[in-house]
Amino acid sequence: MGGVVGLKGTDGAIILREAIKKGAGPVSPKRGKEFLSILSEKQGISLFVAEGRMGADIARELGLEFVPINSVGSETTRMDTVRIARSMLDHGIDVLVFVGGDGTAKDVLEAVGDNVTVLGVPAGVKVYSSVFAINPRTAANIVLEFQNGGTETVKGEVLDIDESEFRKGHLAISLKGYLLIPQRGGLIQNPKVPSVASDTEDMETIADYFEQELIDPGTVYVLGPGLTVDRIATRLGVTKKTLLGVDVVRGDGTILGLDVSEAQILPLVKDSKARIIVSPIGGQGFFLGRGNQQISPGVIRSVGVDDLVIVATKNKIGMLWPRRLLVDSGDADLDESLRGYRRIIIGYREEMMIKIE
Questions:
Q1: Going by DSSP bridges, is the β-strand pair 67-69/308-310 parallel, antiparallel, or unpaired?
Q2: Which residues, other chains included, contact 146 with Cβ-Cβ below 8 Å and sequence gap of 6+?
Q3: CB within 8 Å of 302: residues ≥ 6 apart
Q4: Which of 75, 82, 215, 245 is most buried (CB neighbours < 10 A)?
């Protein structure tokens, strides 16, 4: 829930209340509904679903038959996740699907260990673990393949970060353990890989190119997270960019907002000439929908997809396998409009055509 309001996660009751106060709404129900709506078209799957807002409400809305598991209150906590996941094991399930981010993956790991195959549907701010499908639709397809016996299992990393440090601009990732996941290359996201020292020169050349060719004093620039965009920010006069957040600056050096939310970005780009600058997550390839949800479908439509600029070092592109970039904005129509081949800035007057899926 914390993504669009710039809170970088909602682990803990205090941060959750702050997210709600800022206007955040739940993301998991929409993502869960997208996942279950595909399964509803298929036969031969028996569903065991947590009661109430943790799944059963969606299943009933879709008219699905299911076995309800446990009761939940009007407000749920991580312990509900742990309790219900353990109950699922008692019912002899074949695969446990959860909707959330790295924090939820960690809770599921605590509950089930390596006793059952698990698959994550991404719906969090922090989605760095390699236990998630790349989006809800692919998650459903993986489950269907698994049901038909076409998928073996492998170990997937459960990673998590310290949210309090994350909000200070420090990215501290730790390995929490491994979950058994379906082996389905290309449909399961890779774990995040941090930038390395060899990227520095490419970052500077990208920023040089941007400064000389792409900066216009009257244009508003929405700057996504990451070290490469940080180098561009310095050329725009931002001496201390929010490294893991989104900033907005005009080309003449006027800072319009630091560590902004979706609601703060929208009036800054409305009726203005604007550009969005983003860089994909290392190892994963997501340039929208992971860690930069403030740059929402509404923001992108207001600016225009043609003014969405993607920058990446050669090393970051070289680490991607398969060689592609990924988009998971939460808006299927927008994602479809961004798919296909697109030019990516990779150096000084250097661009690469790369496929977006």
A1: unpaired
A2: 94, 95, 117, 119, 182
A3: 266, 269, 270, 274
A4: 245
- Low pLDDT (below 70) residues in the chain: 1-25, 163-171, 197
Q: Is 172 exposed, middle or buried (0-12, 13-18, 19+ CB in 10 A)?
A: exposed
Residue whose pair of structure tokens reads 């459903």 in the numeric block:
140
What are the φ and ψ backbone dihedral angles of 58, each rounded to 5 degrees?
-70, -45
Structural tokens at position 96? 């446990």
The pair of three-digit structure tokens given for residue 51, joined into one six-digit string: 């009661």
Q: Which of 109, 95, 51, 48 is nearest to 76 (CA)?
A: 51
How is 181-196 classified by DSSP, letter by letter? EE--TTTBPPPP----
Looking at the chain, how many residues does it have?
357
**What does the radius of gyration of the chain's CA atoms come to, in whole angstroms?**
20
Give 201-224 as a DSSP string: HHHHHHHHHIIIII--TT-EEEE-
| CA–CA dist 142, 124 (Å, integer) | 20
Residue tagged 């040089």 (tokens): 208
What sign does the dihedral 224-229-234-236 (CA atoms) show?
Answer: negative
Residue 72 CB neighbour total at 10 angstroms: 19
- pLDDT tens, residue by residue, 188-225: 999 888 777 678 999 999 999 999 999 999 999 999 99
pLDDT value, residue 5: 45
At 192 the pLDDT is 83
| pLDDT in the model for residue 186 | 85
Which amino acid appears at position 345 of this protein? I
pLDDT of residue 262: 94
Q: Where are the alpha helices (DSSP H) in 287-340?
A: 297-303, 314-318, 332-338
CB crowding 217-254: b at 16 or more within 10 Å, else e: eebbbbbbbbbbbbbbbebbebeebbbbbbbbbbbeee
